[in-house]
Design a protein that fits this description.
By secondary structure, this protein is an alpha/beta fold. The chain contains eleven helices and twelve strands.
Length: 318
């Protein structure tokens, strides 16, 4: 039986001022044409879809509150019937946009061109394996969708878009060194690459593929870092404590690490929450991490993980 763990949390203000540098997470709904068994969305029916008029109102609200940049996300934002209307409204209000996407819509060259002409700044695209069969299991999509995601990445690379390729670690894709070799050969060294320790907090939290321990990923991540250094790739991490990375200086590229500062409530479309406060509420540190020299930059661990597995896998830097 795991011994009870005494936990510490970061304290973050419940409010954050909007400045010229602020970046809001703007969710268009949880609708998606992938069926990821590990989906981290809530699964709440009322969060599934918002109509065009409501999304345009939210775009205006963000502009009125001083945001000059947003991240469009979902579900899958590009399949929303109001996607281009939202993009147009953001442009009219002088608001630039990034996107978090599975990338399939970008397989159409005309879609990619229109997005870049319409103000797209950065794209985070999820590709969870270089092996089609593993990618299909992880993302729950039909035959052909893996090929669409890869083709979408091809188009974004060809168009010169700022690109981050996102890979959530599962029991099905720990061959991440081979994954990076595939990506480097296909997409080059210009994109950023990110490895993510999975969250079990969403509707797909019980899926067997993400029942990983931190120790399960130490070796694969170390191999990935060696390959990235060999190939000159920029490799980022999310939700991986510094001691698991064996690097006290590594930064976590979570939402706040990507630059997001605020989250627009996806139900009422009114309230804004500081991203750092949300992250602080969802992560924790065992008392044994007190005094660790990596603590100021470490993302911590999900409280549910520490309650279930304890803190024996964490080795603070002294």
């Amino acid at each position: 039986m795991t011994e009870p763990v005494r936990l510490m949390r970061r304290r973050q203000p419940a409010e954050a001022a909007v400045t010229d540098a602020s970046l809001a997470l703007f969710r268009l709904g949880e609708q998606c044409n992938n069926r990821c068994p590990m989906c981290s969305n809530s699964g709440r029916p009322e969060a599934f879809f918002q109509g065009e008029a409501e999304l345009l109102r939210r775009a205006d609200l963000l502009a009125d509150r001083g945001f000059r940049r947003v991240v469009l996300t979902g579900g899958e934002p590009t399949i929303h019937p109001a996607f281009w209307a939202v993009v147009q409204r953001l442009g009219e209000r002088g608001v630039a946009w990034d996107i978090n996407t599975h990338g399939r819509s970008f397989a159409d060259p005309a879609f990619t061109e229109r997005a870049l002409l319409g103000g797209l700044r950065r794209a985070i695209v999820s590709l969870h394996s270089h092996r089609p069969e593993a990618a299909r299991v992880i993302s729950g999509f039909s035959h052909g969708a893996f090929e669409e995601t890869v083709a979408g990445l091809d188009q974004l690379v060809r168009a010169g878009a700022w690109l981050m390729i996102n890979c959530v670690l599962t029991t099905h894709n720990l061959d991440v060194a081979d994954y990076l070799r595939f990506c480097a050969a296909r997409f080059g060294s210009e994109p950023r690459y990110k490895l993510v320790f999975p969250s079990t907090g969403g509707k797909g939290g019980d899926w067997e593929g993400i029942q990983l321990r931190l120790n399960d990923v130490r070796g694969p991540v170390a191999q990935a870092r060696a390959v990235a250094a060999e190939l000159g790739l920029r490799l980022a991490f999310e939700s991986l404590p510094n001691c698991v990375l064996d690097d006290p200086s590594a930064d976590d590229t979570s939402r706040s690490g990507f630059g997001e500062t605020h989250y627009l409530d996806d139900l009422d479309g009114e309230r804004l929450y500081p991203i750092r406060a949300i992250e602080a509420a969802l992560s924790a540190f065992p008392d044994s991490c007190r005094g660790c020299r990596a603590l100021p930059r470490c993302p911590g661990v999900a409280e549910s993980y520490l309650r279930r597995h304890g803190a024996s896998e964490l080795t603070p830097f002294r």
